[in-house]
Amino acid sequence: MSTVLITGCGSGFGEALALAFAKRGDNVIATMRRPETAPASIKNLVAERSSAVTIAALDVNDADARRRAVDLALSRFGRLDVLVNSAGVGASGSLEDMPTSTLNTIFATNFFGPLELMRLALPVMRKQGSGRIINITSVASLFSTPFMSAYCASKQALDAASIALDIESRSFGVRVAAIVAGPFKTGLPAKSLDIAPSEPYAATHGHFKGVFAELEKHAAEDLSPLVKTVLAAASEANPSLRYVVGTDGIPFIPGLLKALEPEQIFALRLTGQQ
Ligand SMILES: NC(=O)c1ccc[n+]([C@@H]2O[C@H](COP(=O)([O-])OP(=O)(O)OC[C@H]3O[C@@H](n4cnc5c(N)ncnc54)[C@H](OP(=O)(O)O)[C@@H]3O)[C@@H](O)[C@H]2O)c1
Q1: Domain boundaries along the sequence of the chain
Q2: How far does the centroid of ligand 1 lie from the alpha carbon of residue 262, in Å?
Q3: CA of 92 to the centre of ligand 1 (A)
C-alpha cells in the first residue's frame, strides 16, 4: 500500500487518479484549491474510506499550503510514496497580447508549483529510500504550437525538470516520470486563460481557434487510458522517463520520441551511472 498525494483533484485527471489510487487500496491525499467544492465522487470516496482517503486544500502556488500538504501525508500516513502533479491551467493567445500576469500564472501553476512540491517530496522520499514523482506534462512538452506559447513553454520546462530530477535522484531510489498526454475531455478548455487577439493577429488566431476547436471535439471522453498509464508509471520497477498516452491523432509523436532516445544514455553517462 502506498501513500499518494495528488494535486488538482477537483476535476479531470486529478479526480480520476484519486479514485483509481484509492480503488487500488492506496492511502490518498486528494488536494484541490477549494475542498468545499470537491466533486461528489471524491466526497463519497472519503465517506467510504475515511481512514485511507483525505481531502486537503492546496493551491500549488501557495508555499505554506504546499508544505502543509506534504506534512499531512507524513503526520497522517507516516510516509509519501507517490506525488502526482496534475494541477494545471491552459492559456491561449499571441505572445504579444498575453498579459504578464497571465504568463506568471501559467508558469507558477504548471511549472514552479509542481517544481516546489517535488523539492519538498524529494528529501522525504530520499530518506525513505524510495518514491515516485509523476508529472502530468502534455504533448505540448514535446513541441510548440502558435498561440499557446506560455502553456507549451511551461510544460517543456516541467518536462526538462522531470528528466533531470529522475537522473539526479535514481541512486536514492526515487524516480520521476512525465506523462505526455494527448487531448482528453476535461475541465481544462473551459478554465483556459484565453486572451482575445489584437487586430494584427486576428486572421491567424481565428484560423488557429477553428482548427483547435475541431481537435477538441475529437478529444477522448474516456480517461481510463490516462489513469492506467499513471498507475503503471507509479508502480513499474523500472519506469520510463516519459509515458505517452492519447496521442494517436498526432502522427509525428513517435518520431519525436525516437529522436529523444539518446537523452537518457547521455544523462546517465554524465553522472557516471552508465
Ligand atoms: N485534458 C487534456 O487534454 C490534457 C492534455 C495534456 C495535459 N493535460 C494536463 O493535465 C493536467 C490536468 O488537467 P485536466 O485535463 O484534468 O484539466 P482540469 O479538469 O481543468 O483539471 C485541472 C485542475 O487543476 C486545478 N488547478 C488549477 N490551478 C490550480 C492551482 N493553482 N492549484 C491547485 N490546483 C489548480 C483546477 O482546479 P480549479 O477548479 O481550482 O481551477 C483543476 O481541478 C493539467 O496539468 C493539464 O495541463 C491535460
Answers
A1: 3-270
A2: 31
A3: 15
pLDDT digits 0-9 by tens, 11-60 = 999 999 999 999 999 999 999 999 999 999 999 999 999 999 999 999 99
- Number of CB atoms found within 10 A of residue 73's CB: 26
Amino acid at 79: R
Compute the C-alpha angle 28/118/130, nearest 5°: 70
Identify which of 147, 178, 180 has the alpha carbon closest to the alpha carbon of residue 247. Answer: 180
Q: Name the band, by pLDDT with cuts 50, 70 and 90, for residue 258.
A: very high
Residue 94 near residue 102 (C-beta atoms within 8 A): no
C-alpha dist (Å) from residue 49 to 46, 54, 57, 75: 5, 9, 19, 18
Q: What's the fold here for domain 3-270? A: Rossmann fold (3.40.50)
**What nine digits make up the cell of 205?**
488566431
- Residue 188, ligand 1, Cβ within 6 A: yes
What pTM was estimated for this model as a whole?
0.98
